[in-house]
Amino acid sequence: MRSSASCLLAALTLASAGCGKKEAPKPAEQPAVQPAPPPAPLAVASIELGKGVDSMKMVTGGTMTFGVKDTIYASVGTTGIGSNATIGAKWSFVKKDGSLVPVNESSQTITTSGPVATEFHITKASAWPKGKYRIEVTLNGMAAGTKDFEVQ
Amino acid sequence: MASDDPDFSDVSGGSSSTADAKGGRTYTIAKGDSLSKIAKRFYGDAKQWKKIHEANKDTIKNPDLIFPGQVIKIPDA
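^ inputs. structure came back:
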């Protein structure tokens, strides 16, 4: 008797399953766990020139042409992470024959885990000689970009 | 430098960053500079010139004798 009841119950269960009862949804496939990409190394993303910088070291009054009494600012934008990385700025005067005359050189050592701006500036007690100038930016001693500008 | 090159000995420069600066700042000495003037500019106190001298003893033997164009280290305040 007990065996018959069990069979009946089993049959009813199967019947109800066959009458439209939906199966429990399968769990969604778990995406494969991807390791986080390695952080990007520090790199120079931009070099902007202007006559001033704000508190975020971004240039204000961006220009490529300066007056003879201006203080000249360059804002170097970097991305990525770096520890004790040295950003250098070498300012030069470009002679008519294309050769360079050193004007000034300075550097800043930074430790960062994200985008930052680093400003460099030069000023001259007497008037700047009119002509073309260049700033060469280096990162840990390697060339990272140049920008030409003019003093009129 | 050729004799007809423009004179940039009175140029001074500097830098700053939004990142953590770790004592690696440098300064190029301009005409008319002295260590006390540089200390006043960076620290607001001319008496701090000894700190700059201490950080540059390898290149500045005599603190009264510095030269335009010379690049020196500026330690953190």
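Strands of chain A lie at 43-53, 59-62, 65-66, 72-79, 82-94, 100-112, 116-124, 131-139, 142-151. Chain A touches chain B at residues 56-57, 78, 84, 86-87, 89, 91, 93, 95, 101-112, 116-126, 129, 131 (CB under 8 Å).
thumbs up if we can close this ticket
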